[in-house]
Amino acid sequence: MTEGLPRVGPPDPVPTDRDGIVRMIRAGQERLVSIFEEIDGGTFGRHAWERPGGGGGTARVMTDGRVFERGGVNVSVVEGEDLPAEIRRAKELPEGTPFFATGISMVLHPRNPHVPAFHANFRYFEAGDRDVWWFGGGADLTPAYPIEEDVRAFHETLRGLCERHAVADHPRFKAWCDDYFTVRHRGEMRGVGGIFFDDLRPEGEGGWGAAAAFMTDGVRTLEDAYPPLVRKRLDMPWSDRERSWQLLRRGRYAEFNLVYDRGTRFGLETGGDTEAILMSLPPLVRWETRADPAPGTAEAATLPFFQPRDWTSDPIR
Amino acid sequence: MTEGLPRVGPPDPVPTDRDGIVRMIRAGQERLVSIFEEIDGGTFGRHAWERPGGGGGTARVMTDGRVFERGGVNVSVVEGEDLPAEIRRAKELPEGTPFFATGISMVLHPRNPHVPAFHANFRYFEAGDRDVWWFGGGADLTPAYPIEEDVRAFHETLRGLCERHAVADHPRFKAWCDDYFTVRHRGEMRGVGGIFFDDLRPEGEGGWGAAAAFMTDGVRTLEDAYPPLVRKRLDMPWSDRERSWQLLRRGRYAEFNLVYDRGTRFGLETGGDTEAILMSLPPLVRWETRADPAPGTAEAATLPFFQPRDWTSDPIR
Mean pLDDT, 10 residues at a time, over chain A (317 residues)? Predict the structure, then answer.
């Protein structure tokens, strides 16, 4: 593992317990919302919700912004007396295992077809008497018209993040993301990937702190990964044809989320807050039958981007 | 069981074998496409497809019509050496059971928010040495702005169909439809229901013929159930606000099809023709977070229609 470049500026303090993680992601939510508001010129609404079983969250949502047709940055902090069955089984824990879960998740759907959509999520779980814990997360980019320079920059930023942390394995997390966000019935990815990881629980005495440091840096690094791409492309002019292709690609996004996304399906099946779960869906979506783009068009040129590819080694073409 | 009113005009000949069923649904496809073309003024394209394992179908699709923003009427005739595992298990049949399946299915998504969307499907299966067979089908209506008179007329027509056939149990098929088309995470139906049935295999010597007669009458009765509602409402003026509500309701439609519909999920999981499977999705869809209509609005007034209700007894209000 090579050593990634440090982020510019002083590092954030690393949480030492779960309350610290909650403070860290709340601060991250505030910063990211400010950045997105500054880019857009509009404001994110604030919706606090409570979970009947314990805990709740804060959803920050922008609808019909100048730049973001829809955007949401959510934080949740949830406690319960009984870990949901699916996780319990995967972790081989008994019924009635208490749990704690907190996370930050965001989805941005820009209006301009040349500005990519973005999704990221970082989460932390504890089960039982705090003796079982794990981290998960990821970030991925979904352009309608991928621009190679931007796709490379996005992946380079995430590779840099991973290489700053011995607990993060970039090639593995990148491949995991490519696989997770595959729309299997289309034989293509939802977008151009990024990183994805789950069940991260480094062994040894410093394991918890190392994972918490990775999560903290991960949340902060989102600022480097996505907003610069938005600023760079938000004034690009776009045509009806490009808008139409964007809406078609958003159809693939909706297909992925409703058919495959584990969080979405798990949430809907267990009676979670439907509106919060489905906030990730794009604001406007188009489906057309047999709409494969003609060879030689700008739309046909996008398709190879939606297959797994190494974006951070030397130029491929 | 009371006796339903006969359809006007001579009854269609009842198929005596599976080839007869194929002829009957092909004729139904031609008639229905002609009716929809006459209403719309446009034409349905024709796309024939073949299935690698045996058989194929004919998809008739209209895109961007004057009345139908998208419409499709499809016939498939499929044979194979190995019944798909899910059906095999449900029917307790051994691996390597050959099968035959044929059906007609249609989805119409009108542009005008005052014209309801429509879905119907009739299908026939054989497994093994033709000794195992069953019929399935149904029809359901999805208005964005339900009009009580039209909803009642639709259900009356389907009740009439069922009451003309001893093998069809309208109260049961109506309740089955209400249940099947429920968007569970929303606590509401996709539309206003209709009828749904599966595994129909009447006992006794005349069982096959009785079921085939019901299917034949069912395909023909679609002409009475839906086109009159389209003709009646297609010239109603509509506003941006009504269009916007229609697109939101279509989002629920897409949620149902991608999250719950057994045919869709089964088709995607077993590698069916994705474009044919997803042809049922609406052409344009909108999602908005926490978009519950304000009390007293026309949109709020639609919501009780999406709960199960008896539409064919005396007036409820």
Answer: 58 90 97 98 92 84 96 92 83 88 96 98 90 95 98 97 97 98 96 97 93 97 98 98 98 97 84 84 94 95 97 69
Query: What is the Cα–Cα distance from B153 to B141, expressed in whole angstroms?
Result: 11
Instruction: Determine whether A119 is exposed, middle or buried from the number of CB atoms within 10 Å of its CB (0-12, 13-18, 19+).
Output: buried
Select from B76, B91, B80, B58 the least CA-distant residue to B21: B76
User: If you search the block for the tokens 């990937």, which residue do you land on?
Assistant: A193
Which amino acid is present at B62? M
How far is it, in rounded angstroms, from Cα B108 to Cα B253?
Answer: 12
Nearest to A286 among B185, B274, B283 (CB): B283
The residue whose two tokens read 């195992």 is B132
Contact residues, chain A, for B47 at CB < 8 Å = 290
The stretches of chain A forming alpha helices (DSSP H) are: 18-40, 85-91, 148-163, 170-180, 207-225, 227-233, 240-255, 262-269, 274-277
Cα–Cα distance measured from residue B12 to residue B217, given in angstroms and rounded to the nearest whole number: 7
Q: What is the pTM of this model?
A: 0.91
Q: How far is A45 from chain B (nearest CA, A)?
A: 11
* Distance (Å, whole) CA A78 – CA A54: 6
Structure-block tokens of residue A155: 């992946």
Angle between helices A240-255 and B240-259 (to 10 degrees): 40
Residues of A in contact with B253 (CB under 8 A): none
Residues of chain A in contact with residue B186, where contact means CB-CB under 8 angstroms, are 274
What are the structural domain ranges in chain A? 18-306
Burial class (CB in 10 A: 0-12, 13-18, 19+), B170: buried
Q: Is A170 a catalytic residue?
A: no
The superfamily in CATH containing domain B18-306 is Coproporphyrinogen III oxidase, aerobic (3.40.1500.10)
pLDDT digits (tens, 9 = 90+) for B69-115: 999 999 999 888 888 887 888 888 888 889 999 999 999 999 999 99
Asked if the Cβ–Cβ distance from A286 to B284 is below 8 Å, we say yes
Sequence length of chain B is 317
Whats the size of chain A, residue-wise? 317
Q: How distant is the alpha carbon of residue A258 from its chain centre?
A: 16
Q: What number of other Cβ atoms are within 10 A of residue A65's Cβ?
A: 21
Q: Which has the closest alpha carbon to B36: B115, B128, B100? A: B115
Record: contact B288-A287, CB cut-off 8 A: no
Alpha-carbon gap, residue B259 to A259, rounded angstroms: 6
Task: Please count the helices (runs of H) and the strands (runs of E) in chain B.
Answer: 9, 10
